[in-house]
Amino acid sequence: MDCISSGWLLIKDQYWLFLGITFVGMMIGSASMYICLGAMMCGIFIALLAKMRGEAVEFGTLFRGFDLFVPSLIPLIIMIVIGAALVVPFYIKMIIDMMLMAETPDAFPKAVIIDLVMMMAGALCLNILYFFLFFCFQLIADRRADGLAAMGLSFKAVAKNFWGVLGLSLLLGLIGFFATILTCYIGGIFFLPVMYAAMAVAYTKVFPVEPPGLPVSIPPAPEI
């Protein structure tokens, strides 16, 4: 809750600007078949971290993420490849099993149920991977870390701050879910800048930004 409230305090005076930055960033990332998603994530965090430092932020700040296109693409490719390896084979097998079942409709769909369970297990493993990469794009945006180094450091940071990151992730997920479902996606869009601001605040708790003097109360955490 501290991360979320501090994130709101950070962006509230320029809320509509950050809404535009996050919404357009996500749209470009999706429209590019996720190829530009990493760069857009970096652009969003560049804008948020600049705001924390008291620097001027404009809509064009988002596109500074393209300066980090290659470093941000590396973890994105790794996540896509691992995700495909964990989910796609079971999805294809489930389709084949369903086609075979059409010939014997009275048969108990045991194979399909097993395939579905394996797909869910693969999706869970993928979400765990995403969880441990919580700080990855913030590190690329803030410290210009290369993709693999950012992934490794994010794993270490999340492991050392496991319960805090888990609590924040679950809370953001719940708020985003209900905001999306209850308002036919509109609320989820309006929650985007607050979500990314909370993630940026969480990052500064583990990796304090320089120079000091943030516009929100963020106590530094021990270095990992």
What are the low-pLDDT stretches, counting only 5+ consecutive residues below 50?
212-224
Task: State the secondary-structure class.
Answer: mainly alpha
Shape: globular
Separation of the first and last Cα atoms: 23 Å
Q: Give a short account of the largest sheet.
A: none
Helix content: over 70%
* Total number of helices: 9
Over the alpha carbons, how many angstroms does the gyration radius reach?
20 Å
What does this structure look like?
This protein has 224 residues and is mainly alpha-helical. The chain has a domain at 2-69 and 136-206. It has 9 helices and no strands. The protein has helices at residues 2-11, 15-31, 37-52, 69-101, 110-132, 136-143, 147-160, 162-182, 186-206.
Keyword list:
mainly alpha, 224 residues, 9 helices, disordered C terminus
Helices and strands in order:
Elements: H1 2-11, H2 15-31, H3 37-52, H4 69-101, H5 110-132, H6 136-143, H7 147-160, H8 162-182, H9 186-206
Can I get a quick summary?
The protein has 224 residues and is mainly alpha-helical. The protein has helices at 2-11, 15-31, 37-52, 69-101, 110-132, 136-143, 147-160, 162-182, 186-206.
